[in-house]
Amino acid sequence: MQNRETNTDFEVRSLDTGCINESKLQHQWYHNIKYLIVGLLFGIVFVKAEVISWFRIQEMFRLQSFHMYGIIGSAILVGMLSVFLIKKFNIKTIYGEPIILSPKKFNKGQIYGGLIFGFGWALTGACPGPLFAQIGTGATVIIVTLLSAVAGTWVYGWLREKLPH
Fold it and tell me: pTM of the full predicted structure?
């Protein structure tokens, strides 16, 4: 077993882009209403586009339909374009704070994590994005999937220092 030095606080935080970009601004509670509205609209789009449909997800994993691949592919393209534009024009947040995109190193843990994520997605018919929309449409059994996702996130946080990064 090889000796590994412990990560410094900055190194550990740099693994999570969200931690680097956390805002130092303090807002009143009602500033979060905009996120609620965007979340509700996002959920409606998910429902209307059938992104949350268990049947559509199963079609994707059985290679029977292009529907979900088209949605995921277009989301990847939008994400790539967004990151390109943020870097090229040094775009800041709506409050003028810089957006820091730290480089990520590839490691085999990403393959294992992706496989576990994909297996869970195929088995449950849900990934984290549409969970709340599925629950909102009345598929209350998805609460089990939500609780499992929260438990999985907790386990990862607990084991994080022992995992290869």
Answer: 0.70
